[in-house]
Amino acid sequence: MSPQKIGGVSAIVLGVPVGIIASDRELVAVITCIGLQLIFFAKERVNDERVQQLKMKAMFLAMSVGMAVMLVANHYLFVVLRRTLDSMPPEISAWEAIAGIMLIALGLFHYWRWQDGRQSAADGATTNEH
Amino acid sequence: MKNRLKELRAEKDWSQGELAERLEVSRQTINAIETEKYDPSLPLAFKIAKLFKQPIEEIFEA
Asked: Which one, out of A34, A47, A61, B13, has a CA that is 20 to 30 A from the CA of A99?
């Protein structure tokens, strides 16, 4: 694991519990966001063009899906729920939105990478089977 | 993009891993190119053409 990834994981593992204990939702969101960004943008062990393409594709899809989910979620929270609740429901902050997007991007990237690897193994990549 | 990478690799009796090593990419990248899930960049396409000593248009078909 690269130092950047270790830094990202450490930030999340150490920082998030601190934020939870302090009941600081914003702090949890900021630390998660920074940690996930460090992990996602770290250099991979094998960093060829396919990996870079998958990362870009994952980020693009995560941004689109994330924005759509945010719009729907905020609409539901503010417009629909507000009618039924006495007090204002908590809004989704920008930090939480970015953390969600980074999580989706990371998930997609690793899933596609796993698919590539699985396909490669299924095709008998390590032998001379053609 | 259609390509003859698998066929050319078979002629040389190379595995995907061996070809990946020669082209300095991952085995997954070679597999993605052969299964037409991924189109290589221009520098990589030139590298492939140089390795197999064939023009690019003989290997890749748009």
From this structure: A47
pTM for the model: 0.78
How close A126 gets to chain B, by Cα (Å)?
Answer: 6
Read off the tokens for A65: 């899906």
Helix axes B42-52, B5-12, angle to 10 degrees: 30
Chain A CB contacts of B42 below 8 Å: none
- Tell me, what's the pLDDT at A60? 95
Q: Where are the domains of chain A?
A: 3-122
Confidence tier at A102 by pLDDT (50, 70, 90): very high
Domain boundaries, chain B: 2-52
- CATH class, range B2-52: mainly alpha
